[in-house]
Amino acid sequence: MTVFTARTSAEAVVAAPRQAIWDALTDPDTLASLTPFLKRITPEGDSHWRWEMTGLDVLPIEVAPVFTEKMEFVELERIDFHHDPPAGRTERTAVTGWYVLKEVEGGTHLATSLEIALDLPLPKLSSKVVTTAMRGVIDQMGDRFSRNLLDHLGIDPKA
């Protein structure tokens, strides 16, 4: 088994109220509907969310990650999350990241960063190929998530 890691970050001014964006990011059902390759998010207790992905093609295998995140919310300002599986549960995927929301002229400045680690039954020698595939999936997810969020907020992405 080898752990492969990929990171991404993005920021933009979204022409929407901070509350509307916050509501989308903090509702598990809404967030799941906006996020490509995500089947569902299930809250577990007060501060943990269990994320279940669809099959992802991470050369040369397909994986369907399931992972538990401890979610920390600073109302209307920040969401932090890190991998925190329940005792006795082994998860081969870990995600760490954050969202930051700030009111600005013209809407809300939204910034995000995340790091994904996959523990896969592949040799370390395959690292370059696997991390390139992971970055491709992450980029596609980010692009589609952005479009879905704008659509959810009723914003024309070409405006």
Along the chain, the helix and strand elements come as EHHEEEEEEEEH
User: Which architecture would the CATH scheme give at its second level?
Assistant: 2-Layer Sandwich
Determine the CATH superfamily. Answer: START domain
- The top-level CATH class is Alpha Beta
Q: Uncertain spans, ≥5 residues at pLDDT below 50?
A: none
Total E-strand runs:
9
Number of helices: 3
Structural class: alpha+beta
How do the strands line up in the largest sheet?
1-9-8-7-6-3-2
Rg estimate, integer Å: 16 Å
Distance between the termini: 46 Å
- Residues in helix, %: 25-40%
> Judging from the principal axes of the Cα atoms, what is the shape?
globular
Strand content: over 45%
CATH topology descriptor: Alpha-D-Glucose-1,6-Bisphosphate, Chain A, domain 4
- The average pLDDT value, as a whole number, equals 93
Let me know the largest β-sheet.
Answer: 7 strands, antiparallel
Count of individual domains? 1
Quick overview:
With 159 residues, this protein is α+β, with helices and mostly antiparallel strands.
Mind explaining what this structure looks like?
The structure is a single chain. The chain is α+β, with helices and mostly antiparallel strands and 159 residues long. Helix content is 26%, strand content 46%. The strands form two sheets. Strands 1-9-8-7-6-3-2 form a seven-stranded antiparallel beta sheet. It has a two-stranded antiparallel sheet with strand order 4-5. It is globular. The mean pLDDT is 93.
Keywords for this structure?
seven-stranded antiparallel sheet; 3 helices; globular; 159 residues; alpha+beta; two-stranded antiparallel sheet; Alpha-D-Glucose-1,6-Bisphosphate, Chain A, domain 4
